[in-house]
């Protein structure tokens, strides 16, 4: 068994969709990034790659490659899962937290869990997704950006 941790942050900006955990969330701003900037899935991918000692998402999906411009991060997560399988690993469980002041994410958490679970062929009860505020402290508290952290447990198949 191996454990990995991932962290990601993206700035909020006007003129972009807010997509977290593969869910399109109605909000006045979206996350800025080369792909769809899905902060949760990026943290999950980094945790998975780290657990398997396979580097980071920046190495596998560089923001200098036009192939990944605007790409759906669920597709990238599928690629990471295929890489893990090719190296003989599978996800056992995931725990994660999304850090933002707004919008409120509770109505979307279950859909996020389901989206992630489907990629790995797991039941959603193996996928933990939570959201928290920073009590208006720091960049997330000021509404400048959103961060996410993820911890995964993988094992050899």
UniProtKB/TrEMBL annotation:
Site (Transition state stabilizer): 34, 133
Annotated GO biological process: isopentenyl diphosphate biosynthetic process, methylerythritol 4-phosphate pathway; terpenoid biosynthetic process
Binding site for 4-CDP-2-C-methyl-D-erythritol 2-phosphate: 8-10, 34-35, 61-65, 132-135, 139, 142
Keyword RNA-binding: no
Pfam (any one): YgbB
Annotated pathway: Isoprenoid biosynthesis; isopentenyl diphosphate biosynthesis via DXP pathway; isopentenyl diphosphate from 1-deoxy-D-xylulose 5-phosphate: step 4/6
Cofactor(s) required for function per UniProt: a divalent metal cation
Cofactor descriptive note: Binds 1 divalent metal cation per subunit.
InterPro entries, per database record: MECDP_synthase (IPR003526), MECDP_synthase_CS (IPR020555), MECDP_synthase_sf (IPR036571)
Domain 2-C-methyl-D-erythritol 2,4-cyclodiphosphate synthase: start-end pairs: 1-154
Keywords for this protein: Isoprene biosynthesis, Lyase, Metal-binding
Binding site for a divalent metal cation: 8, 10, 42
Enzyme Commission identifier(s): 4.6.1.12
Alphabetized HAMAP family for the sequence: IspF
Subunit structure: Homotrimer.
Protein name: 2-C-methyl-D-erythritol 2,4-cyclodiphosphate synthase
Organism in which the protein naturally occurs: Termititenax aidoneus
Gene name as annotated: ispF
